[in-house]
Amino acid sequence: MTWTPSDWRKLPAKHIPEDYPDAAALEAAEARLKGYPPLVYAGEVRRLKSRLGDVAAGNAFLLQGGDCAESFKEFHPDNIRDTFRVILQMAVVLTFGAAKPVVKVGRIAGQFGKPRSSPVEEIDGVELPSYRGDNINGMGFTPEERMPDPNRLVQAYSQSASTLNLLRTYSQGGYANLANVHRWMQGFVERSPQGARYEKLAEQITKSMEFMAACGVSPATVPQLAQTEFYTSHEALLLGYEEAMARVDSRTGDWYDTSAHMLWIGHRTRQLDHAHVNFLSGVKNPIGMKCGPGLKPDELVSIIEHLNPEDEPGRLTLIARFGAEGVAEGLPPLVRAVQKSGRTVVWSCDPMHGNTLKTGTGYKTRPLDRILSEVKQFIDIVSAEGAYPGGVHVEMTGQNVTECLGGAQAISEEDLSSRYHTHCDPRLNGEQALELAFLLAEKIEAVASAAGTLQRQAS
Ligand code: PEP
Ligand code: CO
């Protein structure tokens, strides 16, 4: 039986809206998208898969980050630039910590649809459908806004296309120059109240840049230093849109989802016999899957076999999201089962979605210390099971928002209301994201040097 992009329609599907008032208008919007140009090309997607294959083999590190939900309202070139800039800064820091190339993947240029814990929202006795992401309905608490609107699919496509266009310019046109990124990172170290803590690593990076320049290796002489590879990703939630973006690659005859380089399956939609797993099993993109509470080890192995029957390196990234309090219990059985199965995966850590809490004043937030704690535990646990902790997946922005607690600026509960702009979950701001990168770099270095010591002792 050959797979087709519409097979998912025959299967149970969670978190896909069924209340579009005009089915014909939805069909028409999807048909329009089918005729639109792909956003990414199969060759790029294959290159990302091969880079992720390097991560799976322990030879590179994956950094995936961006908004929880992009929105039409926050669509602005400065926001795209700032997110891109912080990801590059984080990558430079991580490259030094891990002494490995960092594969950079944005949650951007298509990250709109959101699974919600409840299909309805109630305010002051009024009940309306929940907000489901700007590609589906609007955030305003009115019946009109909350009605799913198919025109939003086309608007999301067009926003994704412009975003991607700007990202391609930034990554190839000189903005990503290593010398720039280094300067930004130094600026952060000087400004940060905890800067002294990061000085050693920052100094090492500066020294290496100077050494390279003295050897004649600079962005002026080596064009690769003035460019970077940057990939896009989002949760493949709204399958009507993803189906409309599926194209056959003329070179290989394979299906690719051309809405992004990498797609992932969320924590709420990863049932083996349901629509989302079916759709992603048929396209050749690198796939991520969130792994959190409730996922059974043998269920995980079955999903892996289904999504990656040929055990292709880089095809599958498992993104653990248990929370700082649940990871020590939840993660080891999964890593053990995958190790036992002999399957090739990338292990990444999403330290955001298991660490969300609500303050007394009603803000959804995440304390940075819990985020850091989960990442550290993740590295120890995965390493202890003999696997490679290969990546992180974070919700962050380059904007100076006040959505997550803590960090060098010590954002408190009272501060949250000052710049709380997210359309869904709370994001790390630029400084908090960099702090995470520095701490992660320290941790990876420490684990690697401890392993090196053990190896030396053994030989
Ligand atoms: C997300 O990544 O925004 C998300 C909804 O995560 P999860 O599926 O892990 O809950
Ligand atoms: Co989120």
Describe what is shown at a glance.
The chain is an alpha/beta fold.
In words, what does this structure look like?
- With 459 residues, the chain is an alpha/beta fold.
- The chain has one domain (7-176, 227-458): Aldolase class I (TIM Barrel, Alpha-Beta Barrel).
- The chain is built from 12 helices and 14 strands.
- It has an 8-stranded parallel β-barrel, surrounded by 5 helices. A two-stranded antiparallel sheet has the order 3-4. A two-stranded antiparallel sheet has the order 6-7.
- Strand 3 and strand 4 form a beta hairpin.
- The structure holds phosphoenolpyruvate (PEP) and cobalt (II) ion (CO).
- Phosphoenolpyruvate (PEP) binds at residues 68, 115, 235, 266-268, 290, 321, 353.
In the CATH hierarchy, what is the superfamily?
Aldolase class I
Our Rg estimate from Cα atoms comes to 22 Å
How many distinct helices? 12
Give the overall form: globular
Would you report the number of β strands? 14
Mean pLDDT score: 94
CATH topology: TIM Barrel
In N-to-C order, the SSE pattern is HHEHEEEHHHEHEEEHEHEHEEEHEH
Q: For the largest beta sheet, what order do the strands appear in spatially?
A: 1-2-5-8-9-10-11-14
**What's the number of structural domains?**
1
Structural class: alpha/beta
Provide the low-confidence segments as ranges: none
What fraction of residues sit in β-strands?
Answer: 5-15%
How is the biggest beta sheet arranged? Answer: 8 strands, parallel, barrel
How many angstroms separate the termini? 53 Å
Helix content: 40-55%
CATH architecture classification: Alpha-Beta Barrel
Ligands in the model, by name, code or SMILES, are: phosphoenolpyruvate, cobalt (II) ion
Overall CATH class:
Alpha Beta
